[in-house]
Amino acid sequence: MNITKRGDVWHLRRRVPKGYASVDPRREVVISLRTGSETLAREKAPVLWAEQVEVWEAMLDGDTEDAEARFAAAKRFAKARGYRFLDARKVARLPVQELLARIDLVASDEMRDPLGADSLLGGAELPLITVSRALELFWGLARDKTLGKSADQVRRWRYPHIKAVQNFIAVVGDKPLDDLTRDDFLDFRDWWAERMASERLTANSANKDLTHLSAVLKRVNRDKRLGLELPLEDLGFRQGKAARRPSFSDAWVRDRLLAPGALDGLEPQARAILLVMVNTGLRPSEIAALRPEEIRLDDPIPHLLLQPIGRVLKTQNAERVMPLHEVSLAAMRAFPDGFSRYRESSATLSATVNTYLRDAGLLESERHSLYSLRHAFEDRMLAAEIDERIRRDIMGHALGRERYGEGGRLATIAALLEPIAF
């Protein structure tokens, strides 16, 4: 670092890099190090030079007509100069000493840049971000929500956010976020109340929409540091007791679903997934997403080893081992590498199976579905008096207390499940 002394104060003196010539016309920059100590000056010089580079980077970002980029650049510029960005109204209310310090810095020879007033005196205008634009920004801001997810999991995560925003825009319009009022959100709530009454929808459907809309708007407001007060509180609907999906009876599974030829018309991979569910109780999506390395058919005890390979498991308890018996083992032997048809697109699986079961008269009631096999398996374990800790481990459920030891080992679980397998 080239430092020189002017009077009693040391200064940093360097040429302006060519890459920043478009935002700083000076040939060289001189920055006061605010000390008379050469040792301290040499320590401070690299830090202040890094801050100056950050200022130039912010100026480059701000040299654009894009309001969002210029607003972000103004904030970066202020931070690099050791100040917090405030809008013009808040700047005007600052204590006189701080206000004058900001004005002096903007007017100083050390700055002479177009972002000075925007960043330090609040001249940068809040960017016009509409509700639809907020959704576009949300995907980038919420990248942490998709880490480790498969393409199918990302698609299923994105869909309810898209639906919620589209519903909101259909009701109140694609307004800028800073124009949204409490009435807009109440209008959206009223729209859902009418749908719940006319279409017999549950409060859960409305609350999911409100939750996903809120997630988008709050994340953008926070991460873009817009400082808006979004009136999103107390909009949800009271939910009644959730209806539990009924189980298939043992007789129905044995005599109807597993009757010779009953499932012959079902798409082969979907049929195999159903049969794997019968004796494992695994979620349909868990079976559909199985990778070849999770399928252990040649081991002394054939089993599935559910792991977060190429996807994120539903919960940390979903990582588990599952022995295979009878029809479930036979189904997996037919597809030893897994189910490629549904691995990256499991959304159609349940619809395919449920439609077939309904058309073939294989649903025990109108409320039954493919997922009822999971409940049926759990009921069989309960009837067999299998320990609760092992049942929860098998189903991938939380224990509700700290787990000690390894739980049921594969051989133990296999022996417990064999008598109740079809």
From TrEMBL:
Pfam families: DUF6538, Phage_integrase. Residues 129-221 form the Core-binding (CB) domain. Keywords: DNA integration, DNA recombination, DNA-binding. PROSITE patterns: CB, TYR_RECOMBINASE. Transmembrane segments: none annotated. Residues 243-418 form the Tyr recombinase domain. Signal peptide: none annotated. The keyword Transmembrane helix does not apply. This is Tyrosine-type recombinase/integrase. It comes from Thioclava electrotropha. The lineage of its organism: Bacteria, Pseudomonadati, Pseudomonadota, Alphaproteobacteria, Rhodobacterales.
